[in-house]
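TL;DR need structure tokens for one chain.
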Amino acid sequence: MKNLSSSPEEILQVFLEYLSVEKGLSLNTLLSYSQDIKKLFRFFQKEKIPWLRGGEEDLVKFIHHQSRAGLSARSLARLISSVRSFYKFLILDGVIKKNPAVNLSTPKIWFALPKFLTIQEVELLLKQPKEKNIRGLRDKAMLELLYATGLRVSELVALKMKDFNLDDGFLLCRGKGGKERIVPMGFSAVTAVRKYLEAARIKLFKRPSDFIFLTSRGGAFTRQGFWKMLKKYAKQAGLDIKISPHVLRHSFATHLLEGGADLRSVQLMLGHSQITTTQIYTHISRKHLRSVYDKYHPRA
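>> reply
TL;DR here they are.
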């Protein structure tokens, strides 16, 4: 058994290292785990419960407390998953002998349907960057590429020159947990990226960098920078929706499914490890499926 005098902060650090090395989780996922477990520690401290002696009733009380505080079902499910993983680690590492989280159940999640743009709204958005200057060429390429591939914004800004095969229309993406996947690109995206590389990137290249998308200072583009840029163009386009990079990802998936793509292919392109994650988009397409059914079924 490990030294029980270790502080919760020390144990948390070891847990995060375990998740990083053994599970290969991304920095963003590790941050989520860290925030969840720190919430648990704060709860124990407030309730004057020694963190190593917290039992099943204490954990249930903690979950109920978070629920009453307004945590959504999706966030609550993630929190419970974090707590279960933490206590499973404590058992594996010999810190505790009995797992108080073994019976914690994840609440059923009624998924909020993802927001997405219509094809017409996407076209309007993609017309906003003016390709008359360096910034317009770069922004156009980023927007076209995000919609063409359904990448996460963190994946988009992490792309490097070596990840592209423009001749064949494919790129190599490194997603959650360092998992690699090959994603096709359409003609419009390839054209926009070529224009950016030929006429803009060389002028933004002020210091050595392998990243394909650069800022005006020559550094790698950030997620926050892209979000601000997207918000600006959405406002210019007059789009009446709370825009985010994930809205374009949702739009990519929705339009593929409505166009007849199979769920498994969309899952691979999105980089979802479970097809159940991709199935949420089938709910969006029900109206489309209804219209197809009414039009083509002989007894509709």
